Amino acid sequence: MKCRSQLNIPMHEFAPGLLYFPDFYSRVEQETLANELREAVKAAPLFVPLMPRTGKPFSVRMTNFGVLGWVSDRERGYRYEATHPYTGHSWPAIPDLVLRAWRDTGGYPHEPEACLLNFYDVTARMGLHQDRDEAALDVPVVSISLGDSCLFRIGGDTRGGKTRSFKLHSGDVLVIGGASRLAFHGVDKIFPATSTLLPNGGRINLTMRRVNKAG
Ligand code: SIN
Ligand code: FE2
Question: Is residue 167 in a domain?
């Protein structure tokens, strides 16, 4: 176990730039987060994104917070947009408690522009992919897990390379930055009923990203 000297938060460096902060959020904070997210999702409802070209639906449902949100559809593919694809409204602000993880772990002096919320029911998964729709590829992605645990997989910068997997639990924060920023990653499975945070089960993942270079 290493500690980040300034804030003294327990942290493991799994690989260069891949930082794991177990139990970053206490149970009470997770409950506050879940309530805040429930409210924000009323304004920006979850939607099912479609894969570019094939139009195949993702198994996760998504929404976003912040000035930009990540969306995908058949015709126009992966991109960031300032408005929700169905309501046409701006995305809600990123809740302050969510931003705390970015400020305390990301080591980047500017705020994220985007916070993608992925909701996994117990059958959902996320195939291996790189996060590379951002111009600011030098800035880490900061990921928060809430609800049921998952099996997270991460490899190197090439598809088909060696990967490792580990569990992410409710309240954990993972930073994907530095030499790991373009690592292929995904979610193999959700472990049902491993958390009591979300009354109907499932997992919420929040990923904060800087899209454009600051300044
Ligand atoms: C993602 O890569 O967008 C999601 C990762 C996760 O759910 O932990
Ligand atoms: Fe990702």
Answer: yes
Closest Cα to atom 7 of ligand 1? 205
The pLDDT tens digits for 157-213 are 999 999 999 999 999 999 999 999 999 999 999 999 999 999 999 999 999 999 999
Which residue ranges have their beta carbon within 6 Å of ligand 1? 118, 126, 143, 152, 185, 187, 205, 207
Give the range of the structural domain holding residue 171, as residue numbers without chain letter: 2-209
Ligand approaching nearest to the C-alpha of 168? 1
CA-nearest residue, atom 3 of ligand 1: 207
| Number of domains the chain contains | 1
pTM of the complete model:
0.96
| 121 Cα–ligand 2 center, Å | 17
Q: Which two tokens stand for residue 1?
A: 């176990």
Any domain includes 214: no
Q: Quick: pLDDT tens for 45-78.
A: 999 999 999 999 999 999 999 999 999 999 999 9
Tokens linked to 32: 């506050």
